[in-house]
Amino acid sequence: MASSAETFRREPWHELPVALAALIRPRIDAIVADMVEAIREEVSAYRRPLDSAVGRDLLDSIRRALRQFAELTEHPDSPQDHHIRHFRHLGRIEFLNAVRRTVSRPPSASARGWAAGGTPSSYKRPRCRPSSSYRCTKRY
């Protein structure tokens, strides 16, 4: 399977018929609705109301990605700089939200155990089985 970097170097939209763009454009709203439904079924974080900031970003991003796909299909060598700001902004929001979730999440029982200098019950110390040819030298 090709990596995503290889896919973009190959630019697969060059291989698509130009007429595909004309077929996609009038159906974008229906495709967006189907994609939103599928994403919301699979990813609970996107089940917020569609009139929330998350819902609006989800709808706008899918719509924008489909329009970009149609653009690239019709004009494979067209500049795509006008999409960069939007997707970088979304990436920044996702990053900050992930950091916020990580920082605000209470530590797990095992993390509290480690922080207190103990050994959490979920940690199992490896057993050393001394024999005449083996000496257990590890300290845990």
Entry summary:
By secondary structure, the chain is mainly α. The protein is built from 6 helices and no strands.
Present the secondary structure layout.
Layout: H1 4-10, H2 19-24, H3 28-42, H4 53-74, H5 81-104, H6 109-115
Would you give an account of this structure?
With 140 residues, the protein is an all-alpha fold. The protein has a domain of 75 residues. The chain contains six helices and no strands. The model has no long low-confidence stretch (mean pLDDT 77).
Characteristic terms for this protein:
single chain; mainly alpha
**What is the β-strand count?**
0
- Give the overall silhouette: globular
Protein structure class = mainly alpha
Instruction: Please state roughly what percent of the residues sit in beta strands, choosing from under 5%, 5-15%, 15-25%, 25-35%, 35-45% or over 45%.
Output: under 5%
* Overall pLDDT level: 77
Order of helices and strands: HHHHHH
How many helices?
Answer: 6
Q: Please mark out the parts with pLDDT under 50 across 5 or more consecutive residues, or reply none.
A: none
